[in-house]
Amino acid sequence: MRKCYSAALMFLLGLPVWAGSTSVISVDTTDSSSIGGYSVDSTDVLAVAWTQTVGITGDVSVNFQTGFFDTSGTLYAYLTDSIGSGTTQLGNEIANTTFASPDPLDGPVWINVFGGIQLNPGFYYLTIGSLDSTSGGWSATSDPTVTVTPGFFLGDLVTGSQFWASGSDVAAYLPASNFSPQPTVADGGGPDLMFDVSVPEPSTIWLLGGALWFALLRRKRSA
C-alpha cells in the first residue's frame, strides 16, 4: 500500500473508545511509537471488516482514528454489509456520513462516525474515503492490541480484514470500489488500521444459533 506515513510523523496517541462504553471489537495500541497511517484521498480508499454471530441492540458506536488531515476537506464514511463490485447504496448500506477533516495539529484523534445503530448478526465493512482533493490518513499500528469479544471476529472469513483501493479502482460509490486485501501484522504485513466498535454499559447482546455459523462456513468453502 503506497503513501504510508512514518511513525515519527504520528504523535499524540488517541484515547481508545469513549467513557462508559465497552469495545466489542477493536484494533488499538498502547504503544504510541508504533502508530503510522495510510493515506485517504480522492485516489485512495480504505476499509476494514468484521463479522458478528451475535446481534447488538442499543447505542452502538463505530469509531476510527485519524491521521493527519488537511483542514478544509470533507471525508466520507460508509457502513455496509458488503464491499466491492455489486455493492449498492440501496441494497447494502446501513449508514453513511460526511465530516470535516480535523486540524492536523491535533495529531491522531478518535472520530465517532456512527452512533445509535443496531447491528444484527452478519458481515460489516467500514469504508473511509474522499470524493474530492482532500488528503489525510487513517491511523495504523505495527503493534496492534486487538479486542475481540465472544461472537465477534476480524474479517469476513473469505477476503480478509482490511482493504485498499486506488486510482481507477475507486468507484463513484466508494464501498463498490475494486478493493484489494491488505495483509495485517498477524499475516506478516501491516500495519493494522485502527478502529473500534463499542456499546454503552449496560448493553444488550443477543446470541444467534448455529445458522449463521453454517452460512459462514458454506461461504468460506464456496469462495
Short description:
The protein is mostly beta strands. It has helices at residues 89-92, 210-222, and strands spanning 4-5, 21-28, 35-41, 44-52, 54-65, 74-80, 93-100, 110-119, 122-129, 135-141, 145-148, 152-154, 162-166, 180-181, 192-193, 195-200, 204-207. Helices cover 8% and strands 47% of the residues.
Please describe the topology of this protein.
Elements: E1 4-5, E2 21-28, E3 35-41, E4 44-52, E5 54-65, E6 74-80, H1 89-92, E7 93-100, E8 110-119, E9 122-129, E10 135-141, E11 145-148, E12 152-154, E13 162-166, E14 180-181, E15 192-193, E16 195-200, E17 204-207, H2 210-222
Antiparallel strand pairs: 1-3, 2-11, 2-16, 3-10, 4-9, 4-12, 4-13, 5-8, 5-16, 5-17, 6-7, 6-9, 10-15, 13-14
Helical fraction: under 10%
DSSP, total strands:
17
What string, H for helix and E for strand, traces the elements in order?
Answer: EEEEEEHEEEEEEEEEEEH
Report the uncertain regions: 2-19, 206-214, 217-223
Tell me which CATH architecture applies here: Sandwich
Structural class: mainly beta
Tell me the β content: over 45%
Q: What's the number of structural domains?
A: 1
Q: Per the principal axes of the C-alpha atoms, what is the gross shape? A: globular
Oligomer: single chain
Query: What is the CATH class name?
Result: Mainly Beta
What Rg do the Cα atoms give? 16 Å
Q: Report mean pLDDT, rounded to a whole number.
A: 81
- Please report the number of helical segments: 2
Distance between the termini: 24 Å
Largest sheet: 7 strands, antiparallel
